[in-house]
Amino acid sequence: MKVSKGTVFKKQGSPYLYINISIDKKRYFINTQFEHKEIDYVKEVELSLFRAKIISGEIVLNKEETISKTFKYYSEILLNTKKYLKDSTLTRYQVQVNTLNKVFGSLLIKDIKTSQIKNYLYNLDICASTFKNYLVTFNSVFDEALQDNEITSNPCEKIKAPKKLKKRSWTFFKRWSKSIIRFF
Questions:
Q1: 51, 114: one domain
Q2: Are the beta carbons of 49 and 43 closer than 8 angstroms?
Q3: Out of 18, 84, 99, 128, which could bridge 164 as a Cys pair, Cβ 3.0 to 4.6 Å?
Q4: At CA 74, angle to CA 28 and CA 58, rounded to 5?
Q5: Is-contact 8 23, C-beta < 8 A?
Q6: Which among 77, 140, 136, 74 has a CA at the least distance from the CA of 110?
Q7: How many other C-beta atoms are found inside a 10 Å radius of the C-beta of residue 174?
Q8: Which domain does 138 fall in, by range?
């Protein structure tokens, strides 16, 4: 971990001092409780103490990065966005998300590949419409990660749902059978 020396500055319109520090080329601005007149003290004492606490791990500024961005993390975000849907629709989403979390929940979202999703979906013994529903749920979870800039593309975009088989019309068979009966 590379931590910069840091700087102390005054922000216009604020009576307090701010610390600007970079950790691994990521810049952080921290508000202090010290007023402008205490700038020398903050530069000499507080800044070096603050830097030492970051290096020792006592203070962690990049907490967001410590959250593991798993499939389950984004599926829970998806369910939170769907909570205003009709009860039956929400229940369908919850069942599908719980099923998907059993297989993909612990995997980091950025490590899940299109081939894994295809393999999972095509090995399920489900009809075409259920396949499509699962694919929509997968797609929505990955869209959440895409909006969060955790992934650069949605792996579900390349997966096509199977087409429904057209059911034969019984009217054809009925007419055909009546004509055969009339014939005899």
A1: no
A2: no
A3: 128
A4: 35
A5: no
A6: 74
A7: 10
A8: 71-158
